[in-house]
Amino acid sequence: MKKVFVDGKAGTTGLRIYERLQKRDDIVLLSLPEEKRKDPQAREEMLNEADFVFLCLPDDAATEAVELVKNDSTVIIDTSTAHRTADDWTYGFPEINGLKEKIKTSKRIANPGCHASGFISLAAPLAEAGIIKKDTALTCFSITGYSGGGKKMIAEYEAPENKEKLLAPRQYGISQMHKHLPEMRKICGLEKEPVFCPIVSSFYAGMEVTVTLAEDDMTGKYTVEDIKNVYREYYKDGLVGFAEKVDENGFISASKYEGRDDMCVSAVGCEGRILLVSLFDNLGKGASGAAIQNMNLVLGIDESTGLII
């Protein structure tokens, strides 16, 4: 059986990966005693003993961890931002054309960002189809549960004294320098990064990413049904699926896929003002679920093994 080490399992992403993998009998989970969790030598030994390593660390720490791996057999799946646009790493979104086969044979896989996953799932197929102009600056807004901010934000939202204060949604990333922007542009083959408006709200997990598509963004006149047809054809397997209907009585809930590891995409709106919508769990297909999916592909087993879909 393959040995797996989750480096950084105390964080939200690492913890969910560890919890999912604990239930499996086809792998062996390696772990360090609490007193050696930050011991450089102990970590290096563990990183090199494992067949698969999940890095659930800040960017600098993830970069340092990669340098500690001295063999050429350990597969590293990095959930940080550090390597997502690096040419010598494979971007871990297998539903995008050409990436699944690369992931299967890769030793260095960069797990996508949560917001980026939603944007890419919507924009990449349309860019490939020649519907979206490559030089347009798309507008994207994304609503996420507060678990996306990690343990510190979870504690902030769940503190009783903050209950009323944090009831309303909060927009952030207002400098337009969000760390997911480079991968959003690169993986979709766009020339410009999107105008991006992320919003955190007072629910634990779930994500709704919306990309607006106006006439000036497209290479011709396309209807909502045209866009849906592209998604129907593009997403025939994997953990991303086309949904004919995403709303309930005119409302779309960002928590609809909470607790799941898959994603749905669709399009709504009218001629000239189309909304592209992606629904998933920010900790599922937006983080931990995607990481395990990538490991499954390298193992050559069903990519949904151990996941909730």
List keywords for this structure.
31% helix; 7-stranded mixed sheet; 6-stranded parallel sheet; 2 domains; 309 residues; alpha/beta; 13 strands; Rossmann fold; Dihydrodipicolinate Reductase, domain 2
Give a verbal description of the structure.
The protein has helices spanning 12-22, 40-49, 59-68, 99-104, 114-128, 150-158, 181-188, 224-234, 284-299; strands spanning 2-7, 27-30, 52-55, 75-78, 90-91, 108-110, 139-145, 170-171, 195-201, 207-214, 240-242, 263-270, 273-280. The protein is of the alpha/beta class. It folds into two domains: 2-112 and 287-299, NAD(P)-binding Rossmann-like Domain (Rossmann fold), CATH 3.40.50; 114-282, 2-Layer Sandwich (Dihydrodipicolinate Reductase, domain 2). A seven-stranded mixed sheet has the order 8-9-7-10-13-12-11. A six-stranded parallel sheet has the order 2-1-3-4-6-5, sandwiched between helices. Strand 5 (90-91), helix 4 and strand 6 form a beta-alpha-beta unit. 44% of the residues are buried. The mean pLDDT is 95.
